[in-house]
Write a structure and sequence with these properties.
69% helix, mainly alpha
């Protein structure tokens, strides 16, 4: 569980960087709706995980995986190497999350 918590903390920190990189794109209206929706779900996931204080019983892994998928699909909107590398690092971290399709999703 401690290892899971460490991974979750890393994903949340990386996710916050991704959201920061998306801010100017959102302001310019350049974020596609499917990416925006995935980001909103990932933000709610982040709030739920942080609220659990290490209790993984109700952990749901789909929102960050969905965000990683949408980021990959729309990686071209970032336009620079630094942000595309950030997306790739986020995707790698999220790929380490166990996936259980039988669990309830946020």
């Amino acid at each position: 569980m401690a290892a899971n918590r460490e991974l979750l903390d890393k994903i949340i920190a990386m996710q916050d960087k991704v959201f920061k990189a998306m801010e100017p794109l959102e302001a310019a209206g350049d974020v596609p709706s499917d990416l925006r929706k995935a980001a909103e779900k990932a933000k709610r996931w982040e709030e739920a995980v942080e609220g659990e204080l290490g209790d993984d019983k109700s952990f749901r892994e789909w929102p960050p995986k969905q965000l990683a998928h949408e980021l990959r699909k729309h990686i071209g909107i970032f336009g620079n190497h630094e942000h595309t590398q950030l997306v790739q690092e986020y995707e790698e971290l999220v790929g380490k999350l166990p996936y259980d399709h039988d669990r309830e999703h946020v």
